[in-house]
Amino acid sequence: MSTLYVRDGISTVQPPLPQAVGYIVVVLIGIMIALVMMLVTKILKKTTGEDNKKTEMFMTANRTVRTGLTASAVISSWLWSTALLGSSFVGYDYGVAGPFWFAAGCSPMIVFFALLGISCKRKIPEAHTSLEVVRIRYGRTAHIVFMILCLINNIFACANMLLGAAAVISAVSGMHIIAATFLLPVGVTVYTFVGGIKATFLTDYFHTAVILIIACYFSVKAFSSDQVGSVGNLFELLKAAAERHPVSGNQNGTYLTMTSKSAILFGILHTCGNFGLVVMDTSYFIKAFSASPAAVVPGYTIGGIAYFAIPWALGTVMSSVALGLENQPNFPTYPRRMTTSEVSGGLVLPYAAITIAGKGGAAAVLLMTFMAVTSTLSAQVIAVSSILSFDVYREYFNKFATDRDLIRSSHFGVIFFAAFSAGFSTMLHYVGIDLGWTLYMLGVVTCPGIFPMVFTVLWRRQSKAAAILSPILGLTTGLAVWLGTAAHFGGEVSVASTGEVLPCMYGTVASCFSPILYSVLITLLRPQNYDWADFRKEKLALEKLDSDLTTSHVHYSPGRSEKNSTEDGGHIAAIQSKELKRWGRIAAVWSTATFLGHWVIWPLPMYGSRYVFEKKFFIAWVVVAIIWLWGTMLVAIFYPLLDGGIQQVQQVYKGMTGKAEIVTGSVDTKQNVDTSISPSSPSAGSISESPQGQGSKSETI
User: Fold this and answer.
1) Tell me: the pLDDT tens digits for 590-627?
2) For residue 701, how many other CB atoms are within 10 A of its CB?
3) Shortest CA distance to 495 belongs to which of 437, 426, 444, 443?
4) 3-state secondary structure at position 360
5) How many angstroms separate the Cα of 474 from the Cα of each of 116, 237, 397, 510?
6) Higher-confidence residue: 539 or 628?
7) Contacts of 180 by beta carbon, 8 Å cutoff, 6+ apart
8) Number of domains in the chain
9) Alpha carbons 202 and 205: distance in angstroms, whole number
10) Is residue 592 part of a domain?
11) Smaller CB count within 10 Å for the chain: N or C?
């Protein structure tokens, strides 16, 4: 076998697919998906009364999304192109520890968000964004500070996704990288513009299904190829790769160990950075507000735990394939190793796919990357449009904005942010910034608001001054530490030095944890004693919320006395408050258990013991990861169908064939209650005198 050259120079790999394929996937398939979602939106309006001209439907799907679809959407929310590409490139750099720490840096905070989501659901059920919570508690100054932090979070998150996706699309199809950057958001803009958050949920489901099917295909194809053959043979290939080029900082220089200094440093910065990406991303709050009360905790918990397998399994298998086969003539870069820029640009996954599956593998990666970036980009777009409509337009320009006004401003936000994110990503590309750089430094700018935001929802003592000053001081501290350590270790402040693991880790940790100190110290000077009941005094929903916290489209009949309805409503509210507190305790237990399991009990003993994988252990490691991955696919595809999806399809069919009377839009309070609405309908969340309505209400609670 040939000795590989050092990792320098520039990429000279010819794209395996013609440019036309890239444009077909990015433009044609994107527009087709958008047109299908527009048709679905129209059908749902006709058959189930889901009117996207109503703000509550456009932004929160009437707060009735069930557990299955919530879990699928949560998995999709983290199915960034970064996750697919980044988990493979850290596996290439650090060995089996890289993909594991990538996965462990994602799942605990997804599950933790269940606690934040259910707390918001209980304390401020009418909210649309997390920023509304901040404004009500602390006023406009804090509102503006957190708004800027959230927008920075969304901007860098989108840039991270677009840089990686555009680089891969360009590498496998020859499509110009800037063309890919600007065309990727087009289809997203169209279906988000028309369908709002429900279109995001539905496209999330479709995209997640496609991505997971392709990921499972690679998990099988890797071992059915003649070059690998089995997991045991892959183990031998990795051993040989470590002999050719040992890994600095790994136990015995091998790829087959969790004792990797660089990998655990990446795990720390990745965990902190992703904590910021979740808490400071308003799209997570929107999805929590959109879910029915009983779906928030199980949806986020199931989604978070299921997600773990995707970067772990896919990253482990594909990075191992790339390392083991890069000295083979059919590897795209042969006879040299991949350059540092190719690895950092996210090309480990596509090169490994091309090696084991040829042009079919390249096409699969192209489709997977497109699905990943458009799915997660749609969540970012709807998040920013919600900020611009509710937190900017409604709060500072038109306090009495109507549905029409808010939908118009949301549409403007969708178009503006899609164009801005593409332009910002292009600017980063031309100054030499790629996927690896943004992946490492994200936490520096996303983390300062984490704990002030968490304290806003969970700690009644945090003062207004602490909420305003602690994230600003935290951001300043993080930037100073990041740039200072980059200058110290790299000798200068440059793109290269600021993209190294160590400066990014120090800066991220400083950004994440210094606001705790600042917030506590400032709060001690003059603590607040906030009354959570004050959240409910400000009416945020444009339509009435029923006692199960879903948007009301049908109301009490005039024959029912106001006294009785008030007494019933109070009784139901008391029951639900108790139920939500129970869900909060469950969320706290699950989030703690997930963090301890994925971050402490499992990996740290393996790190401390300096264990090097034996063949049988490596085989078990890979097999468990693949089984988990296939289980995730089954959960993401079939759970939403079993949890209300089939019933809604039946309801749509009956509506289309005229076999069911459907209520479209709100019913006037002078009319009698329409009892024909199916309890599985998203519009059936309201209190009704009929047995059907009562059944629906009890299911939701």
Assistant:
1) 999 999 999 999 999 999 999 999 999 999 999 999 99
2) 17
3) 437
4) helix
5) 21, 45, 30, 7
6) 628
7) 22, 26, 165, 166, 169, 170
8) 1
9) 5
10) yes
11) N
Contact 431, 493 (CB under 8 A): no
- pTM for the model stands at 0.82
User: Which amino acid, 487?
Assistant: A
| Per-residue model confidence (pLDDT) at position 207 | 83
Helices assigned H by DSSP within 535-608: 562-595, 603-608
Q: Supply φ then ψ for residue 677, to 5 degrees.
A: -75, 130
Evaluate whether residue 566 is within a structural domain: no
274, HSE (Cβ side, Cα atoms, 13 Å)? 26
**Is the distance from CB of 62 to CB of 293 less than 8 angstroms?**
no
Q: Which two structure tokens, joined as six digits, stand for 267?
A: 């795990």
Q: Where are the alpha helices (DSSP H) in 339-402?
A: 340-344, 348-386
8 A C-beta contact, residue 288 and residue 296: yes
Report the candidate in 326, 228, 252 with the shortest Cα–Cα distance to residue 3: 326
What does the alpha-carbon distance between residue 368 and residue 25 come to, in Å, rounded to a whole number? 10
Q: CB within 8 A of 650, min separation 6: which ones?
A: none
Residue 500 belongs to some domain of the structure:
no
Token pair of 648 as six digits: 């809604």
Q: CATH number for the domain including 209?
A: 1.20.1730.10
The two tokens of residue 542 are 């444009």
Mean pLDDT of the chain, nearest integer: 81
- Quote the pLDDT of residue 675: 33
Structure tokens at 496: 């290269």
